[in-house]
Specification:
- By secondary structure, the protein is an all-beta fold.
- It is built from no helices and 20 strands.
- A 5-stranded antiparallel β-sheet has the order 1-2-3-4-5, with no helix packed on it. A 5-stranded antiparallel β-sheet has the order 16-17-18-19-20, with no helix packed on it.
- A hairpin with a 5-residue loop joins strand 17 (175-182) and strand 18 (188-192).
- The radius of gyration is 30 Å and the shape is elongated.
Length: 208
């Protein structure tokens, strides 16, 4: 073995291991920081760099406290200009997701089922040209398009996921004027803000 020591001989700065072939660079108090291995370099501590380049077909892994690969950045196989962001690439646990945060607060996540979740906020995915758009709400999905063939053969498609209640709230100058919603299966109602209106069900009109 080879060692580079301080003048007092109490601290190691550089060490070469003849049996493993590893070379280790130390900081003060015999603290190892960089060690060569058969496959590359192991770094202990924080790396500050002006840039980081990962060669083609390789990847950058992020490990958790148990040394599982919790996240991975890599290029998409077969493509020269596409990036893959992966959570739990080795499928070592269930319930994996990708989390997006701003100012330490979660704004969006993609879960293991492919759902895009926006916490408790609304998400507007409308296109800038105004031709089509999707707005996701807490309790349902609203889709809108100029072309009636774009969204379920309609210009406006509203899907309430749970229970009865309002589908559309009607406003004028910022003040609510009425509602259109579901009373029961296949029944709809139309009412003003004081719940006076008409309902449609089983081919009949009735007060709401």
């Amino acid at each position: 073995n080879m060692q580079l020591l301080t003048s007092a001989g109490t601290s190691t700065y550089l060490e070469g291991n003849a049996s493993t072939g590893a070379v280790t660079l130390y900081h003060l108090a015999n603290a190892p920081r960089i060690t060569t291995t058969a496959s590359g370099v192991d770094v202990t501590g924080t790396v500050t760099s002006d840039g980081l380049t990962v060669q083609s077909n390789n990847y950058l892994d992020i490990h958790d406290a148990d040394n599982h690969v919790s996240g991975r950045l890599r290029n998409v196989s077969g493509s020269n200009n596409a990036l893959a962001i992966e959570a739990d690439p080795n499928n070592s646990a269930s319930g994996s997701f990708i989390n997006f945060k701003i100012d330490a607060s979660e704004k969006m996540r993609i879960d293991g089922s492919g759902n895009v979740l926006a916490n408790t906020t609304d998400v507007d995915l409308g296109f800038t040209n105004g031709d089509t758009g999707v707005v996701l709400r807490n309790d349902g999905v609203i889709q809108a398009a100029r072309d009636e063939t774009s969204v379920n053969n309609s210009v406006l498609y509203v899907n309430k996921l749970n229970g009865e209640g309002k589908l559309i709230a009607l406003y004028k100058s910022g003040t609510q004027a009425g509602n259109i919603g579901i009373v029961a299966t296949n029944n709809i109602f139309m009412s003003s803000v004081d719940d006076v209106g008409i309902g449609v069900g089983d081919d009949n009109l009735y007060p709401t």
